[in-house]
Write a structure and sequence with these properties.
Number of strands: 17
Radius of gyration: 25 Å
Shape: globular
CATH architecture of the largest domain: 3-Layer(aba) Sandwich
Helix content: 40-55%
Region (Disordered): 437-467
CATH topology of the largest domain: Rossmann fold
Structural class: alpha/beta
Domain Enoyl reductase (ER): 60-432
Strand content: 15-25%
Distance between the termini: 87 Å
Main location: mitochondrion
Pathway: Cofactor biosynthesis; ubiquinone biosynthesis
Keywords: Membrane, Mitochondrion, Mitochondrion outer membrane, NADP, Neurogenesis, Nucleotide-binding, Oxidoreductase, Transit peptide, Ubiquinone biosynthesis
Number of helices: 18
CATH class of the largest domain: Alpha Beta
Length: 467
């Protein structure tokens, strides 16, 4: 009788194992395997409750940045969120402005409308708009990344920033980090890349089909977004535009650098303005024509050139008075400024009055330009876009976009990093190493691979010319 029971138990166990194996295969085919891996992965929030971070608990200039080891570790709060362990973060002039309270009223409304109505505080506030790191936990609906993936992203200004050990973002805001870049290098690109792409594509109305024979001018081009834009000129990926004028702004000193690299990879013919001591950097990133804006005849030189199709203004102020005259009249040319009065006016006038006044300002300028010369006047804004960063990542790994890191600081020296950005005259990004790993070795390997990619591309161009 015992042997009969044993045989029956064996058959039952075999049947159960077969059904379990079949069920596992079915789950894997339907995408549940990634979910199972995520659930099996221990979230940092389950292991520890606090993390290190640099925060502000009030708005101001000097002395408001504080280091703490008691910042709560963020958790995956929705099915589409991703928890990232920060390896490197970088600073933008927007971080300096936000430290002083810039945009506080509108950004607080975007963070949590109900808390604003109840008078709740946004502090402690973590700054830092760029992140490169590693995924450690995901929501159940996330399919684009899994724990262990190396990613980069631009952190929206209304979210807690990247000057901390961990940060949470939505899957749509996250992209896989370029393989050829270290975390330090990768952290120099996302925010300015998303800003440049949003301005050029969304506000500038540029697309693959309308790109040929467009003209591009970039002013203040030694900052980050400008270098990015120039380098995209030679890419076959998106031949978006041939000439755009881009100027320095509160959002990022690196915006002109990034714009310039982007346009370079897209195959644009790029003219830029910069100071004489930045000319070598600008030409090295692919500018076709360079105008020294410190020279007395710089405006005359620009006026002698062929008119432009799009202007991307990253300076604001008096720039509009002379730059709009460089656009082609009555041809659908666009003037896109990244320096809108929206946040300043909501700060000074309140949410409703400020938004109304900003809207009237945009309407009046748009009507004035379209009536007088047929030019479209638009505002450009940063927009989070992980899929766009996926395309940028491909350009980086193809050697068509290079990181431009001017200064690096360890996580213990974040105040010094802020001071570096506040001093201005940047020739690239200021990056904070949150995790001190073997980034130097990775940077050396990345430079070697990018050099090989550039040599290969040069050989292809020479062969095409010979044929």
């Amino acid at each position: 009788m015992g042997s009969v029971r044993a045989m029956a138990s064996t058959r039952l166990l075999s049947s159960f194992n077969a059904k379990a194996a079949h069920a596992t295969k079915t789950l894997a085919r339907s995408g549940w395997s990634a979910s199972l891996r995520r659930n099996a992965c221990s979230s940092p929030s389950a292991l520890r409750s606090c993390m290190s971070a640099w925060v502000i608990d009030q708005y101001g200039t000097d002395g408001v940045l504080k280091y703490t080891e008691e910042m709560p570790v963020p958790s995956v709060g929705s099915t589409s969120e991703v928890l990232i362990r920060v390896h490197a973060a970088s600073l933008n002039p927007l971080d300096i402005s936000m430290k002083g309270g810039y945009g506080a009223k509108l950004l607080n409304l975007r963070r949590d409308p109900m808390s604003v109505m109840a008078g709740a505080s946004e502090f402690p506030l973590v700054l830092g708009r760029d992140v490169s790191g590693e995924v450690v936990d995901c929501g159940s609906d996330v399919t684009h990344v899994v724990p262990g993936d190396e990613v980069w992203a631009a952190v929206p200004p209304w979210k807690q920033g990247s000057l901390a050990e961990f940060v949470t973002l939505t899957e749509y805001e996250v992209s896989h980090k370029p393989k050829l870049l270290s975390h330090t290098e990768a952290a120099s690109i996302p925010y300015v890349a998303n800003t440049a792409l949003s301005a050029l594509v969304n506000a500038g109305g540029l697309c693959r089909d309308s790109a040929s024979n467009k003209r591009v001018l970039i002013t203040g081009a030694s900052g980050g977004v400008g270098t990015f834009s120039i380098q995209v000129r030679q890419s076959a990926f998106l031949q978006l535009c041939r000439r755009v004028c881009c100027c320095d702004c509160v959002y990022s000193c690196c915006l002109p650098l990034v714009c310039r690299q982007l346009l370079k990879a897209w195959g644009a013919h790029v003219t830029v303005t910069c100071s004489q001591n930045a000319e070598g950097l600008v030409r090295g990133l692919g500018a076709d024509e360079v105008v020294d804006y410190t020279a007395g005849d710089s405006l005359e030189l620009l006026e002698m050139m062929e008119k432009f199709d799009v202007i991307l203004d990253n300076v604001g102020g008096e720039t509009e008075e002379w730059a709009t005259g460089l656009l082609k009249p009555w041809s659908g040319a666009k003037y896109v400024t990244l320096v809108s009065p929206l946040l300043l006016q909501t700060d000074s006038m309140g949410l409703l009055d400020g938004m109304l006044q900003a809207g009237l300002s945009l309407h009046n300028k748009a009507m004035q330009n379209i009536i007088s010369c047929g030019v479209f006047y638009r505002w450009g804004f940063y927009a989070p876009d992980g899929p766009a960063l996926d395309e940028v990542s491909k350009l980086v790994d193809a050697g068509k976009i290079l990181p431009v890191v001017e200064a690096q600081f360890p996580f213990t020296q974040v105040p010094q990093a802020f001071q570096k950005v506040e001093n201005g005259h940047a020739r690239g990004k200021t990056v904070v190493r949150v995790v001190e790993d073997d980034d130097k070795r990775a940077e050396g390997l990345g430079r070697t691979r990018r050099s090989e990619a550039a040599d290969s591309e040069q050989e292809e161009r020479e062969m095409a010319t010979q044929n």
